[in-house]
């Protein structure tokens, strides 16, 4: 067992590839993925839309409830995009990762618990701030969670360990969503006064699930070294990102891919975050129908991820990405002309098909384009992560602004085609090396 020497003494660190430590790390995905599925995708968007006025007065300005939701999401990611370089610098310094992991987890969980008190327009501030706090807590914690991977596993096991976390997250979040669905649909059998109470208890269940299972992670991960903060540590993340930006001048192929990724991610992420709001407001989906829809979408997403991984081996990454972007454009056009729930179920199946595939294939394509022997590989992926966050800001803000100007969500979803077309145009100029197939 290796020891870390610190000013406060010697702290033992778990050995690499220790099964108990790795499982403890993966449990965090089980814990926090409940937010990603229950709060950001399945239940909260529809609940928010159903209990708030269609038009909301903010000072002298009137804004639709769905546009306000999009703006709140944009602001959350602006905050995280600004914090990410500082957080990455702290994570790279390996000083207090667990402290900040606990801090952001607590912020996220408490924010979910606070949503229980969001009962209508009188508590609108509570609802918006609770949602933003949960989003910030979830995204902020991921910076430190991901930074633990090199400390608990050797490089040859990164993919396998990372996949274990993904699997834990999927199973845990779906399990909790099914339980919530049962309670919401049969609230009287559980002695609850209304479906609204059952829905708000779902938010409480996410907070308790998140903070509860995270304790296993906190217990099993290596302890902090608790070194003192230095001004250089806080600046480190910004210096790393600036270094990557300067290096991109000499890497035009990688720069074109990042620009393509930025534009089509703005479209992809906006659809994923605001599809439930569109379904509830434009097509009058009820909460229970939305939950079932999300569950089906998750199952299709797994098949889609495997299918496009197979397709990329046959046709290459670039062709596979083009096919998926064409499907995304088709989804937007079709959604604009969709007026029935049955039609939307078909569209959702198409979204599920390309949802996981485009995210996984984008990251693997980026890995192929990053210089092989660069010492700044972590910084390159930090840059990639922040670019994705900024894409979410641009996409969701554009959605809200267009809806505000036009008075409807359909023009917003049609406008997303611009992001996909720009992404395809830039991607067409990217050269992606092909790797030999593994027999």
Number of helices: 15
Percentage of residues assigned to helices: over 70%
Our count of domains comes out at 2
Which CATH class of the largest domain is shown?
Answer: Mainly Alpha
Basic shape:
globular
**End-to-end gap:** 38 Å
What structural class do helix, strand and pairing data support? mainly alpha
Q: How are strands sequenced across the largest beta sheet? A: 1-2
Q: Could you name the CATH homologous superfamily of the largest domain?
A: MFS general substrate transporter like domains
What does the radius of gyration come to?
22 Å
Strand count, sense and closure of the main sheet?
A: 2 strands, antiparallel
Secondary-structure element order, N to C: EEHHEEHHHHHHHHHHHHH
DSSP strand count: 4
Mean pLDDT: 84
Going by CATH, the architecture of the largest domain would be Up-down Bundle
CATH topology of the largest domain: Growth Hormone, Chain: A
Poorly predicted tracts of residues: 1-12, 435-439
Beta-strand percentage range: under 5%
């Amino acid at each position: 067992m290796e020891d870390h020497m610190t000013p406060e003494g010697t702290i033992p660190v778990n050995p690499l590839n220790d099964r108990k430590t790795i499982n403890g790390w993966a449990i965090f995905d089980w814990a926090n993925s409940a937010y990603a599925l229950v709060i950001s995708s399945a239940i909260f968007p529809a609940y928010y839309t159903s209990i708030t006025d269609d038009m909301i007065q903010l000072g002298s300005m009137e804004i639709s409830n769905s546009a306000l939701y999009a703006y709140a999401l944009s602001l959350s990611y602006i905050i995280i995009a600004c914090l990410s370089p500082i957080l990455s610098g702290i994570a790279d310094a390996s000083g207090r990762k667990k402290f900040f992991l606990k801090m952001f987890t607590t912020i996220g969980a408490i924010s979910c618990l606070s949503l229980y008190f969001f009962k209508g327009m009188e508590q609108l501030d509570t609802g918006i701030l609770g949602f933003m706090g949960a989003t910030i807590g979830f995204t902020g914690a991921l910076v430190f969670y991901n930074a633990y991977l090199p400390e608990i596993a050797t490089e040859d096991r990164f993919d396998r360990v990372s996949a274990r976390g993904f699997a834990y997250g999927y199973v845990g979040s779906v399990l909790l969503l099914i339980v919530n669905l049962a309670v919401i649909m049969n609230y009287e059998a559980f002695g609850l006064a209304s479906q609204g109470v059952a829905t708000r208890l779902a938010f409480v269940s996410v907070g308790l699930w998140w903070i509860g299972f995270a304790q296993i992670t906190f217990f099993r991960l290596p302890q902090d070294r608790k070194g003192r903060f230095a001004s250089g540590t806080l600046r480190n993340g910004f210096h790393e990102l600036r270094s990557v930006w300067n290096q991109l001048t000499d890497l035009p192929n990688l720069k074109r891919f990042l620009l393509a990724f930025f534009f089509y991610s703005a479209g992809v992420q906006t659809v994923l975050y605001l599809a439930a709001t569109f379904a509830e407001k434009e097509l009058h989906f009820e909460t229970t129908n939305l939950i079932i829809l999300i569950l089906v979408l998750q199952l299709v997403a797994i098949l889609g991820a495997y299918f496009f991984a197979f397709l990329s081996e046959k046709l290459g990454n670039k062709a596979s990405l083009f096919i998926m972007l064409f499907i995304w454009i088709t989804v937007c056009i079709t959604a604009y002309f969709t007026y029935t729930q049955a039609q939307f179920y078909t569209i959702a199946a198409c979204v599920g098909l390309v949802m996981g595939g485009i995210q996984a294939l984008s990251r693997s394509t980026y890995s192929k384009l990053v210089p092989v022997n660069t010492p700044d590989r972590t910084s390159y992926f930090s840059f990639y992560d922040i670019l994705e966050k900024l894409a979410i800001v641009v996409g969701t803000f554009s959605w809200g602004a267009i809806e505000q100007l036009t008075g409807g969500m359909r023009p917003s979803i049609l406008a997303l085609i611009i992001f996909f077309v720009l992404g395809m145009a830039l991607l067409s100029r990217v050269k992606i090396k092909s790797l030999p197939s593994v027999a």
